[in-house]
Amino acid sequence: MYIIAHRGSSSTAPENTIAAFDLAVQQGADYIELDIQLTMDQHVAVIHDDTVDRTTDGSGPVRNYTLDQLKKLDAGSWFDERYAKERIPTLQEILERYSQRIGILIEIKHPKRQIGIEKAVVDIINRFSYSRHIMVQSFDDTALQRIKADAPSLRTAFIMKPSALKLTKRKLAVYSSFADCLNMKKTMINRWWIDRIHSFGMDVFIWTVKDQKTANRIKKYPIDGVVTDHPPFFQKKK
Ligand code: G3P
Ligand code: CA
């Protein structure tokens, strides 16, 4: 089971920063998960929200900032003063730093409001040698269909909302045409569904585990990956 550090090791360092991703590597995670947004000048920035307010000292929508302007923001002090030097990374920087060290799960946020983000992501990923260790995920099926059409060997994960609860055979056949993996909310976990998803050739990931009790429960299921803020909950025995 892959341990996937949600926005990096985000319980211990500011999310979606080099500090959080480095920590995930040190803690032995198999993947880092990160979120992307387009800047005003069409660069792909690594930040969860569509505004900078919650995780930086700036304010306003990411799309109103050029990359140079975004890079001036402090992306760490909101979490702890000792992270004041953290900056918002770009997807290119993350792939340069980590693609040979750890898997990377890239979440496309709000693709309907970010025209062209799928192509921008594939163009960046294509600069690197990729395998199953770089994946793209989204809550948006259309975005994943575009990614698959553009880059058939790039692995994809469809993030499932609990409202998508009824996984009929017909739905699973459609999902398997554009997704290699279903990433289910932890409350949806169910042995019968896991087996059914596997029978359609897809992997099963679970998002997002934040406490030890849930971690212990999740470990009992035959899943392929778990997204967690706290990778040490799942540390493999050496
Ligand atoms: O891996 C799924 C998870 O990252 C989706 O939720 O809001 O943390 O991006 P969010
Ligand atoms: Ca995410």
From TrEMBL:
Pfam families: GDPD. It comes from the Bacteria. Residues 1-238 form the GP-PDE domain. InterPro entries: GP_PDE_dom, PLC-like_Pdiesterase_TIM-brl. GO terms for biological process: lipid metabolic process. Signal peptide: none annotated. GO terms for molecular function: phosphoric diester hydrolase activity. SUPFAM superfamilies: PLC-like phosphodiesterases. Coiled coil: none annotated. PROSITE patterns: GP_PDE. PANTHER family: GLYCEROPHOSPHODIESTER PHOSPHODIESTERASE, CYTOPLASMIC, GLYCEROPHOSPHORYL DIESTER PHOSPHODIESTERASE. This is Glycerophosphodiester phosphodiesterase. It comes from Bacillus pumilus.
